[in-house]
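Hello,

Following up on my earlier ticket. Below are the four sequence lines again, exactly as submitted.
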Amino acid sequence: MNLQTIKASCSNCNLRELCLPIGLSDEQMQRIDDIVAVRRKIKRGGMLFHNGEAFSSLYAIRTGFFKTSVATEDGRDQVTGFQMAGEIIGLDGIVNDHHTCDAVALEDAEVCVMPFDRLEDLSREITVLQNHVHKVMSREIVREHGVMLLLGSMRAEERLAAFVLNLVQRLHTRGFSQSELVLRMTREEIGSYLGLKLETVSRTFSKFVDDGIVEVKQRHIRILDTDALKRIVNHQRECD
Amino acid sequence: MNLQTIKASCSNCNLRELCLPIGLSDEQMQRIDDIVAVRRKIKRGGMLFHNGEAFSSLYAIRTGFFKTSVATEDGRDQVTGFQMAGEIIGLDGIVNDHHTCDAVALEDAEVCVMPFDRLEDLSREITVLQNHVHKVMSREIVREHGVMLLLGSMRAEERLAAFVLNLVQRLHTRGFSQSELVLRMTREEIGSYLGLKLETVSRTFSKFVDDGIVEVKQRHIRILDTDALKRIVNHQRECD
DNA sequence: CGTACCCTTGATGGAGATCAAGTGCAGTGG
DNA sequence: CCACTGCACTTGATCTCCATCAAGGGTACG
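Thanks for your patience. The regenerated structure is below:
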């Protein structure tokens, strides 16, 4: 296995407030440190886990950027999400003790390995941790509801606008700009996530540029008019 | 409130193996009975909970059939799932202490009310129950991955075939026929779930009838050729 | 028995897919 | 340093599937 492992420590991790509940005592934090014993590095293009693999751990992303995707037997696949620092990945594996999607690093990444059985043990003793785990899973369910809404009822422009706004908002939470971002994924991966072909993604970006809403230079995006993007998402029909 | 409440009991419920983990002792079962104290009846068309409502409980469906749906500010909405006896509903509410979707009964229904805080309490003491809750949530995440795949990459025929197969399979688990089912939802609700218009759903059913794959009489569906449906789902391109 | 809703079917239109060509950029090796 | 190669991206032309618009029919229920 081409993976590197290093000792992890949550207590002095600056992503603590993203991964963990607030209000943990020093002693509780120490016990969490003990089970989140190991970090793992994944090279760009490498897999954190893959469909069919036995499930043992959840992963908290420390650095880097991932995509998760599912596939049909006949070869089509669908990107189900893009995950960044502070987010938890691997929840799909719990139900059947095997992962049902692939997680691929879109840039060099590092994750904290959280053995799930130990996490369950600790959740039984630390109430706020238990509740936190439930909220993380519920958040993922709600996020996917949003994607279903997007895929089921939005047109291409709305999908892409919603996508860009979502990405930049999450990056902003992590201290990055509200108006600039660098895409870590290809047009094809964006298209797969949004249920569009890569040409449509490209054309739609071009249209946004023509309309003066964004600047696009390869994967570098600068948002010139956030409100216009929001209007596109919420208000498809210009008439009313 | 137009709801009726009655005392619930899991220990002699025939859906036990759908809602609860196996291997509970009598004493553990009794404690679960204690927290699942109440059942609630919902009339056809009534709401179990709605978007924005404070979250307090999960619900186990005892009888009846529900749809859940989310909506955008500008009024479009998307059915996110259809739920039947033995399934758990309300997981969306955990993350923000408020529900983010509507749950509507498509026929007269009865649910068991499971106050979530008490469920968390008990989960800390009964390991298999804790793990069960995690699996229920993970199962929902995986289910939604499947819907995303459907919405993002399948054509109308594939979507409807997958939908019918999924429904009949779940009904079969509950002791119903493998080849016959009664739809509890309208064509429009099916369309919303599948990202299609009701006319397309209707036309696609008609095409299946023409092809001798199913019989359709209003909401009564009889599957004549399950394999053909499976082939439509897995093998979109007839050429290869 | 009438009314309302749900469903089916036909005709037409349009958003996005597909097919195709060309451009720009990064990495490689001469 | 520059040609070469490969990949990601853009843009144009055409096609197709599904949406939309429209009309009619069946069924349930008061």
